[in-house]
Design goal:
Helix content is 72%, strand content 3%. By secondary structure, the chain is mainly alpha-helical. It has two domains: 194 residues, no CATH class; 167 residues. α12 crosses α13. It is globular, with a radius of gyration of 21 Å.
């Protein structure tokens, strides 16, 4: 049965290996980190938390397996619809979303008691939409170049604004209200995708300047008028500028120092009892405390492996949409991991980003595996085309 299952796996084997290793690491680390939850709420019992985590990881692999069997072109056809749904869900979240940890980022799924972070769905929808629109634009630019024209002759600034910049900006600003770090990450990925789509550099500069200005005005207004999480942003930025680590970051740095090169040992973390959310927002600190800096480096290598394979597949892709989708997903997973690690180590201001594939979660894990399923499915198409051309 297992042999038959493995025979149905498509796509880049290195990607499959990196994903599997990160998920296995997650099981080991979360088993220790959730001990604090057992002590706080269930008299030391952690089995239920571990069962929930393993269940979501297992469901995640099922989601990835199903999605990776779907032709990525299907998602291209759904790009506009998915973006509209994402915008609607983000607006509903702002108006009626559940507030957890002082942030309104979640919607409650009726009749289940589960919540899901709408920004996670919006992230997936935006990457698909950008890949679809930019692949069309890239095709027009390449046609113009073949005809001896300039890239800007292939499209109008109005077309670029209405089809790409405005929709992406709406999604990013809606996310930014409750989840600034994710919004900034998506803005960065958007610019990278614009750059590799052969958009003239002068347009990228203009768009970049306009978006930075809008984001600055938005953040300034939220902070000045203390709207939403404005006060939290202000405090975090001020402490970061002054070089004063927040309580969370200080405890994370202590965990890293305690871990040293080889770690204190499995299940021997001390800082898990002091860190808020050691099983999610600060799980990387627990990894180093228990397994050492060597384990931390191995995890970094696994994330960079995902990025390396994504860039390699992007350069090999003959289908523009598939290539851009691969690049966008690879950037998203890797950037989020680097932001998480940067926050834990004190390089960036404190925020609440989980470590992809490792942090404990529910629906966030499923959305991550959904993206990885698309990545694996797209990689399969690239590999099959390469073999066919060979």
């Amino acid at each position: 049965m297992m042999t038959a299952l493995f025979s149905k796996l498509r796509g880049d084997r290195v990607l499959w290996f990196a994903i599997l290793m990160l998920a296995l690491i997650s099981m080991l680390v979360v088993t220790s980190a959730v001990g604090v939850l057992g002590i706080r709420y269930k008299g030391g019992e952690v089995a239920s938390y571990m069962f929930r985590h393993v269940t979501f990881l297992s469901l995640g692999f099922i989601v990835a397996f199903v999605v990776h069997r779907i032709n990525p072109v299907v998602f291209r056809k759904m790009a506009n619809l998915l973006l509209v749904i994402a915008i609607v869900l983000l607006i509903i979240t702002l108006l009626r979303g559940a507030t957890i940890n002082q942030a309104r980022r979640w919607l409650v799924i009726p009749f289940t008691g589960l919540t899901f972070q709408t920004s996670a769905f919006a992230q997936v929808a935006l990457l698909i939409y950008l890949s679809a629109q930019l692949s069309r634009l890239l095709g027009k630019i390449k046609e113009a170049l073949r005809n001896g024209q300039k890239p800007e002759d292939a499209f109008s600034l109005r077309e670029l604004t209405t089809r790409i910049i405005l929709p992406a900006s709406i999604v990013i600003l809606l996310i930014a209200y409750a989840d600034l770090s994710t919004a900034l990450m998506l803005a960065t990925i958007t610019f990278i995708m614009l750059f590799v789509s052969l958009l003239p550099f002068k347009y990228i500069v203009r768009i970049g300047g306009a978006v930075v200005l809008v984001l600055a005005l938005f953040i300034g207004a939220v902070v000045m008028f203390k709207i939403g999480r404005g006060e939290t942003w202000k405090n975090r930025i001020e402490r970061y500028i002054k070089g004063e680590p927040s309580y969370q970051v200080l405890q994370a740095q202590i965990a890293i120092a305690n871990g040293g090169l080889t770690g204190r040992g499995i299940g021997k973390s001390v800082q898990r009892y002091f860190l808020p959310h050691p099983y999610s927002d600060y799980v990387y600190a627990i990894i180093i405390e228990e397994y050492g800096l060597i384990a931390g480096i191995i995890i970094l290598v696994l994330y960079f492996t995902i990025m390396w394979r994504s860039i390699h597949l992007f350069t090999k892709a003959t289908n523009r949409f598939i290539g851009l989708l691969i690049l966008g997903i690879g950037l998203s997973i890797t950037f989020q991991a680097l932001l998480h690690i940067g926050v834990v180590s004190g390089l960036f201001p404190a925020t609440g980003l989980p470590l992809p594939l490792i942090s404990m979660g529910g629906t966030s894990i499923l959305f991550t595996f959904f993206m990885l399923g698309m990545l694996l499915g797209a990689s399969a198409v690239v590999i099959e085309q390469s073999d066919g051309n060979g």
